[in-house]
């Protein structure tokens, strides 16, 4: 391998690593932001983050769109979780 090709490979590798790190940090930030609110549906939150990441990787700049997608998906899980609690409260009120 010549020097130019090796340099380009290293630069590409560093660039990919930077993107992966940005994605990981954004994922962790969104997870921390919503985990307490959605504590009873944590698996749903993880799945929502996975879906957001998969969608982000389909774009030319995944690190730029991932956080917004992840927050949108997490808010949807949060709304669903709140709805589930309301339904459970109504159901247990009917049973009493």
Would you kindly provide a written description of the structure presented here, covering whatever features stand out?
The structure is a single chain. With 96 residues, the chain is mostly helical. It has one domain. Helix content is 85%, strand content 0%. The chain has 3 helices and no strands. Helix 1 packs antiparallel against helix 2, helix 1 runs parallel beside helix 3 and helix 2 packs antiparallel against helix 3. The longest helix has 34 residues. It is rod-shaped. The mean pLDDT is 89.
Distance between the termini: 76 Å
The arrangement of helices and strands along the chain is HHH
Number of strands: 0
Low-confidence regions: none
- Specify the helix fraction band: over 70%
The share of residues in extended strands comes to under 5%
Mean pLDDT: 89
Total helical elements: 3
Whole-number tally of structural domains? 1
Largest β sheet strand count, sense and barrel closure = none
State Rg: 19 Å
SS-based structural class?
mainly alpha
The backbone outline, from C-alpha atoms, is rod-shaped
Record the SSE blueprint.
Layout: H1 3-35, H2 42-56, H3 62-95
Helix pairs in contact: 1-2, 1-3, 2-3
Please outline what is shown here.
The chain is mostly helical and 96 residues long.
Key words describing this protein structure:
96 residues, 3 helices, mainly alpha
């Amino acid at each position: 391998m010549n020097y130019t090709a090796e340099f380009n490979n290293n630069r590409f590798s560093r660039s990919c690593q930077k993107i992966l790190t940005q994605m990981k940090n954004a994922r962790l930030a969104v997870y921390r932001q919503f985990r307490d609110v959605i504590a009873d549906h944590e698996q749903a939150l993880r799945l929502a983050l996975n879906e957001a990441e998969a969608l982000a990787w389909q774009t030319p700049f995944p690190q730029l769109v991932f956080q917004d997608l992840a927050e949108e998906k997490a808010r949807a899980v949060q709304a669903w979780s709140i709805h589930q609690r309301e339904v459970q409260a109504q159901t247990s009120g009917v049973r009493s």
